[in-house]
Amino acid sequence: MGGLTFIGAVIMFTAAMISSAESSITTFSKAFKPLYGEANIVSYEDEGSVEIAMDETTSSGFHSKQMYTQGYFETSLKLPDSYTAGVVVTFYSSNNQKYPYRHDEIDFEFLGGGKWSLQTNFYGEGHVERGREERYDLWFDPSEDFHRYAILWGPERITYYVDRVPIRHVNKAPSIREEFPSKEMRLYATIWNGSDWATGGGKYKMDMSYGPFIAKYSGFVMNGCPFNETAQDCRDYGMGLTRVERLKMNGFRRRWMTYSYCYDKKRYPLALPDCVFNRNELRHLHKLHPKTFGSN
């Protein structure tokens, strides 16, 4: 199944959600503010888009002005081109500043190298030692043009979308308990040097002679429930996937997934209790790395 065949002419997406997303695009200046490296953050297109850069002096990042209790959060992102080993670009939610020792997080992390790879992860209550990472190749070069990346976070689910194709769906199983993100979070975007881990444990280092490295963000959708200590009413973002969405997701994962914590026998000889196994995924991963992904 080729990339173009997989995507098709029209991406099927929950009609209400896509309509809401298209009508909810906001500007950088309205929704965000600099986190660090302010000199390397440049907004353009009437504050609708922003560039963040990493150069010899500093990396950079920004975060949302508001905290949210759940919601649908989307951006269009164009990654740096050229040689990008060690470069990490992110779009994620977190509350590490408010809860430094028990923070929650839902991640998109883009890892530079010979080609860009995408990593997703989530955890709650500071349980970083129980990583639930997955990594994927993409059916396009994310440095050539803008593509949409979105997180749908509800009380009972997390879904990650790429160009409105669901690529990962997590239900809050009883076995996850406090490790499922549940506290209010901000949205973040950063670019930084991850040479120590982003390329196979630091095999390749970032080369600043190819810099500065610039990530471009646009089309921000912040369709969420703003955190308020007294607020009770909020739209429920806990719906599941449609049948078509699930078919699209399964097709993506069978072809493009390159790592999943659930199948990593070296890291977790006894799989985490929330893992749901798929024979097609295991077969695909075993072909890629038979020593890591043994039979279940």
Protein model, in words:
- This protein is mainly beta and 296 residues long.
- 14% of the residues lie in helices and 35% in strands.
- It contains five helices and 16 strands.
- It has helices at 3-7, 15-22, 28-31, 243-256, 279-288, and strands at 25-26, 32-36, 41-44, 49-54, 60-64, 68-78, 87-94, 105-111, 117-123, 134-136, 147-154, 157-162, 165-171, 186-193, 213-226, 257-260.
- The strands form two sheets. Strands 1, 3, 4, 6, 11, 12, 13 and 15 form an eight-stranded antiparallel sheet that branches. An eight-stranded antiparallel sheet has the order 2-5-14-7-8-9-10-16.
- It is globular.
- The model is unreliable at 1-13 (pLDDT under 50).
Compile the SSE list and pairings:
Layout lengths: L2 H5 L7 H8 L2 E2 L1 H4 E5 L4 E4 L4 E6 L5 E5 L3 E11 L8 E8 L10 E7 L5 E7 L10 E3 L10 E8 L2 E6 L2 E7 L14 E8 L19 E14 L16 H14 E4 L18 H10 L8
Antiparallel strand pairs: 1-15, 2-5, 3-4, 4-15, 5-14, 6-11, 6-15, 7-8, 7-14, 8-9, 9-10, 10-16, 11-12, 12-13
